[in-house]
Amino acid sequence: MHSELIEIRTGSAETVVDLTSRIKAFLRGIDAVDGLLNVWVPHATAGLAVIETGAGSDTDLLAALRDLLPADDRWEHRHGSHGHGRDHVLPAIIAPSMSVPVLGGRPALGTWQSVCLVDTNTDNPVRGLRLSFLTG
Description:
Number of domains: 1
CATH class: Mainly Beta
Order of helices and strands: EEHEEHHEEEE
CATH architecture: Sandwich
CATH superfamily: YjbQ-like
Shape: elongated
Family: Belongs to the UPF0047 family.
Protein name: YjbQ family protein
Low-confidence stretches: none
Number of helices: 3
CATH topology: Jelly Rolls
Structural class: alpha+beta
Pfam family, one: YjbQ
InterPro entries: UPF0047_YjbQ-like, YjbQ-like_sf
């Protein structure tokens, strides 16, 4: 098994960060061939999604999350910025981990698919991303 923790700077705004190029670089760096890549975000307020990016889907996802999880006073969890409690509900909807098949050293993603970090927590501008490659 090969595993690495990568730092992702998300800034101070809600964001969707395309991780695909970082994942490909990790796989190249370990000379991966065939196996399974586990992607894990060790945070209570972030998640991972496989979506199309660059055509508005990332913006649409953030808009849908704002509709589903408004940043208001309804949340019991109240530390941090206004409405921060919703950020702690996010990983129940956008999971903090996923597995991606790797074939021939490349993630077996569809043509328009990208692995993305989804972060609505504006209080934490730096995230960790654990990549673990397993072969069998």
